[in-house]
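The pair is listed for reference:
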Amino acid sequence: MLKLTSLSDFEISIHDVNEVTAGLIDNRPIYCDKKHLHEETQPFALYIRHYPEVNITPEMLATRESSRTICAGDLFLPVEDSALKKIASVWREKGIAEAIRCAAAEDPRKITKIVHWIATRITLVLNFIEKKTSSPSEGLSSVGSGSVADIAATRDWPTALIRCLAWHPHCIRLALATRDDRIRIFSSGIQGVAVLRHGSQKSVCAMSWRPNAGRQLAAACCGGVLVWTVELGAASNSLSHATLLRQRNHAPVTGVAWHPQGDLLVSCSPNDLNIIVWDVEKETGVSLRRLGGGGQCILRWSPCGAKLLAATCRTVFRVWNTGTGKPWTTERWTVPNGRIAAACFGPHQTLLFVSTEDPATLFSLPLQDNIFDLRASSTNDTRVAIPLVDLSKAYFPLGDNEGITLGGRVIAMDWDLSGKYLAILFQDSPSVAVFKTKVGTMSRLTEVVPACLINGVPGEIPNCLQFHQYLETGQQKACLTIAWSSGRVQQFPIIEKVSPSITCR
């Protein structure tokens, strides 16, 4: 039986208060003061030279007025079809109900007053039925920034300079969504920064790069999903363009994720019972709906694409079996209290998750039902979720009235693709906790032990994080990217063995 780890098992030193934790090399944390962070002689500098240096300052953020810009798609005049042709097109693509709503929104003079009157009355009936079958109590209490801030995997989302980040899965290309509703793209070997602006790009809280397509980025926004085709280089700001995907009552969008093969895009909203599976090229979506649990707030694909986690705003969460050649099926589970706060897949379809309950506990899920069956005799029963880490708050005094509080509510969590390191970000802690993990047979974790705590410059707190992992010169490396409250973006290399033959670009 795997021993339940607690946060009190971490070892804390005076370095964790006075210096930046700059890397984990040979299982040993490397510390550095702010003045020498960018010196090439530092032992961690070798592993992050090829990463772009990123620092977002408040002066770089645009005001709300200056951010109203015209994107490339707005430079072309729209071709307006006749009202009847538009209604017929909606009928073919989205069904009769949406066609009736389209007719009700048209000018009565274009479709005759009688047709408009009938369409308006039917629309009122449809809206009434929809309101009764999908009550607001099923989702969050509000649709404003409060609900997005509660769900977003970002600490202090309303005030954070950097609200979310996303690494491209195949290259060194980083997308940052900032507080001014702009997305900035940083790429290795490319001069300049692409700045993406759009009138519908408000409250971006999640992003996902399209696999096997180097320049397409999906962003979850307040009004829908923006799919950007990003042009890099000097003319990037004028040539990049976006497609807005939206459906009725599917807003704000808080989760967006590409299938690992890059052919499907899914999105979710806390005010919609449905998950939308998008055909981006056709700009159409198909709804996946299951009653119970309320609106959807979190989506995660497994690395192989065979599983899709969909967490609701209540205790219910589902795992969709999305294997090719078979209809999609879903398995329904519940957590004891709260809702899923953070979740991530690792190797062999292993799922780690933590709920918003207090005290929080990190669980490993073997993807079988009845995972909280209290009648189970032992954790060897594959139908039980295995508790791994007790995330209750722990205080570490360091003398002179200084100390570190660790634990509490989890805001974000990420697991590197090799399944060796897990990073957790808390709401009330200035540190990022990194655990060393090992996955055995049957998707079982055989080791979860504290590795190190990552601290920034004194006064900084972490806002969001994500692992970047790739192959270079035949060696696999992991690097944890952390956006700090100051706007500094840190690359935290994790190297198990230092080889003298390692070469960097």
In short: The longest helix spans residues 113-133. Residues 63-79, 133-146, 374-381, 500-505 have pLDDT under 50 and may be disordered. Helices lie at 15-18, 83-94, 96-104, 108-111, 113-133, 145-151, 236-239.
